[in-house]
């Protein structure tokens, strides 16, 4: 059908006026601009302002790209070492100052205690307490027994339970695990649920010193007997980068020290005299017991034996389950029960960590 020009223009105007939205097909689509990013045509065309603006745009783009990448999950394996374990506090402090915060925390023995304080946000409280310890306070926490060990541990852990919060491991914001040993079978036990204090108590039951912990139908003792630095546990729980803290690296380099009692009363006033030496000196004084100062005591033999076992086992486990970075504080000058020398241990932990920060940051 044909129509004249007047009719054509009449109906064309009616159609256009009644259309709900008119969009020119030649109009370019609206551009969605990333927040904080300048388009190139909006930048100054030359000179130093142009360079600075272009650098800012590139930096913003790079940050956006970095934020889209999956963050590597960092795990920290805090090793056993009795009183030397206060060095873990210094390690954690040094890592935090350099912006390194672990997502997964695993510990053995004293490492489990410090790790528990970290994941419960009680590390500052723990640090303040350990720095306040002197040897008299340390001895006051020893409830002696001859059943299963020299120390029950109830007095110490009751104090910790009353002064630090106890939480279920499943409710923590970060993944946590502690290593213990089944006394009956010798198997490695991973404590991953229930009370965090119960897990720490089992992991820190040093054989011969602290009494074992009953768990259903088994007895649990110190995890350092099977896995002194729990790198394997960190890996299993999902860590992609594992930082290991080995407190026993230089123990076999230490020369044997004699009893402080053999050196006379003056030695007992020295600030670096170990708790074990003080206890032995008191026992010798009460019992009027004279001993050849060239002969090691039962405490010396027990401590040296534990050190040998810990060093050899740690080397073997780290060879089988290597960490990405190993921090090795030099702590051979600290004895098994020198819990009153926390300041020395913490400072050494910070020093040792600073030596590996550059290596660690290159991995992240």
Task: Write up what this structure looks like.
Helix 3 (87-97) packs across helix 12. The model is unreliable at 14-69, 255-270 and 283-291 (pLDDT under 50). The chain is of the alpha/beta class. The longest helix is centred in the C-terminal third of the chain and has 23 residues, at 298-320. Strand 7 and strand 8 (218-222) form a beta hairpin. The protein has 13 helices and ten strands. Strands 1, 2, 4, 5, 7, 8, 9 and 10 form an eight-stranded mixed β-sheet that branches. It has helices at residues 5-18, 48-68, 87-97, 110-119, 123-131, 135-140, 154-163, 196-203, 231-236, 275-286, 298-320, 342-354, 357-363; strands spanning 74-78, 104-108, 149-151, 175-182, 188-191, 208-210, 213-215, 218-222, 241-245, 325-327.
Query: pLDDT average, as an integer?
Result: 77
Poorly predicted residue ranges:
14-69, 255-270, 283-291
Terminal-residue CA separation: 76 Å
Radius of gyration, CA atoms, in whole angstroms:
32 Å
**What would you call the structural class?**
alpha/beta
Largest β sheet strand count, sense and barrel closure: 8 strands, mixed
Strand content: 5-15%
Number of strands: 10
Helix content: 40-55%
Number of helices: 13
SSE string, helices as H and strands as E: HHEHEHHHEHEEHEEEHEHHEHH
Shape, principal axes of CA atoms: globular
